[in-house]
Amino acid sequence: MRVIDLSLPIADGIPVYPGDPEVKVKITHTYESHTWELRQLSMGTHTGTHVDAPSHMHPGAATLDELPLERFFGASRLARSEDPTWPQGRGLFFAESVGLESFERLAALRPPFVGGELSEELERALLGIGIVTYTGLHGLERLPGGTDFMFYGFPLRIVCGDGSPVRAVAVVETED
Asked: How far is CA 2 from CA 50, 141, 150, 152, 172, in A?
């Protein structure tokens, strides 16, 4: 098996969406002062590689803590907008930018989650029908085409969470 990390590193001052909170990572305890090391994190819930709950763009919609864990992992496939068909019952990821023109196809398939470089309009539409979205993914081009892989992108259990940074991982079965 091959494990592919799709996450962006979180570090002090990484770029954020315009208007979002700046990322601050500060060492608050050191080995010398406390005999252990500890960092303080300050960032928005949509920092780096993250998952969006329906409540992110729709008042009263499901929050992260209301969604079952099964919504954040599963069999997945790398899709291309020009593919004649997309598989059903799988999470779908796009290595290229996709917009609202893909919404009807995705709505008909009802994948458990969609990830990649999604336009804000597409993301809003998907969240509106309860499909969680993953954005800020790194290295989707490393995923195999035409075959399933397992995706894992668990959020922090934030009460009323509209989104959360995740460690996004794809596990690809390989022949030994």
From this structure: 22, 15, 11, 14, 5
The answer to whether the CB of 54 falls within 8 A of the CB of 62 is yes
Asked whether 85 and 104 are in contact (CB, 8 A), the reply is no
Q: Is there a contact between 127 and 133 (Cβ–Cβ < 8 Å)?
A: yes
Secondary structure string (H, E, C) spanning 31-58: HHHHCCCEEEEECCCCCCCEEECHHHCC
8 CA to centre of own chain: 11
What would you measure as the largest C-alpha separation in the chain, in angstroms?
A: 61
Q: What is the pLDDT of residues 78-108, one digit of tens each?
A: 999 999 999 999 999 999 999 999 999 999 9
Domains and CATH numbers, the chain: 2-8+44-172 (3.50.30.50)
Element (DSSP H or E) covering residue 109: helix 103-109
Cα 173 from Cα 159, distance rounded (Å):
35
Q: Would you state the torsion angle of the CA atoms of residues 43, 44, 46, 50, taken in this order, to the nearest 10 degrees?
A: 40
